[in-house]
Request: fold
Amino acid sequence: MVPDEPPLTAHELGEEAAALIDELSRISAEEDKLTRLYLTPEHRNAADLVARWMRQAGLDVREDSLGTVRGRLPSSMPAYGEKCLLIGSHIDTVIDAGKFDGALGVICAILAARELRKRGIDLPFDIDVLAFGDEEGVRFPTTLLSSSALAGTAPYSELDARDANGISVAEALREFGGRPENIQDLKEVPEKLVGYLEVHIEQGPVLEREALPVGIVTSLAGAERHWITVQGEAGHAGTVPMDARKDAVSAAADLIVSMETAAKSARSDGVVATVGELGIHPGAVNVIPAQVKMTLDLRAATDRPRAAAIDEIKARAARISRKRGCPIEFDQFHEVVTSPCSEIFQDAAKRAIASMGIRPFRLMSGAGHDGQAMKALTDIGMLFVRCRKGISHNPSEYVSIEDMGMAVEATVRWVAEIAQQEMKA
Ligand code: GLV
Ligand code: MN
Ligand code: MN
Reply:
């Protein structure tokens, strides 16, 4: 196939990506901030918009039973068989989010697929562009559900998980137009896959420090999440003496600081502990708190220091519990082990980036991504894009138009490199 028009420049691709990012960011549950949670009406609208963009890019679109939008670009060389390369990211967000986290990867994949088609680049495999819905794990305690379903690691029990209003995943899915009963039919056949690629903002400061627009990810840090319940005893705030209280908030405060200290003093780099949600029961100004429920998000560059850190945290919790007479329970609801990226994909990315005159640079990911679930299914590869000051999960998240353009161009060349490799294999 001969291209009939000159390819867009990186700057033009960046401008296109920026316009799409803005359009998607306007779909939010809140007027003045971006909040788009899994299986909400906003997610529905975002999925429909992304499906429209995929169609405009020339992709065959469908939506799977868990709400993942999929756009297919068929192989230009069917004689090579029926393998498929998956490229995607997510369209759900955190609360009061930035507009690039997830969205940039989906938009990059759509634009790259269109460019591959328009430029007539030989593809010995199909490409499936994926827009996942449950990466952030904010609405339900089911992080990475949509990608886990493709990997075949999402059990039926996940559908019973409930949001803060008591709505289950299964109920929300039916409302969304999905088919929860099909969750286990979504599993992909590993032999038919080339791998899973994802482009994502770095969400850290390393690329900015290196003065590089894009970087190659070596591995994704392991992570675990827990609900922690601290049990105290309700009492009158005016009458119970200080030495006769079982104050759940005071015990929780001790524990929060102690978890921070445990993470800071872990001997290995990269151990990070965060308490991001905290609820006080009964929550009245004149009642000694009876119970605190909070989340712990614990991550590390590799799995052993993370295991050591949770052991240390639980030992500290036991000491605090004894000292204050407040039982403390941990209930783990998420774990992913460290996920290395494929060397073959890293090398292909290196060649692609070098061909653009950019110094190839490798870095790891401390953030979670759908690749962690996809790793159970197939090889994964990731490209990071520089974001200003490394700020993310924050409305001031920012990626320049130039860097977005570089990311789209790098994705096109990365896929072309992988295609060359497949043809040689
Ligand atoms: C997803 O953004 C995560 O790393 O929590
Ligand atoms: Mn993300
Ligand atoms: Mn995120």
The chain has two domains: 10-220+339-424, 222-336. Residues 10-220+339-424 form a domain with the Aminopeptidase fold (CATH 3.40.630.10). The first strand starts at residue 60 and ends at 63.
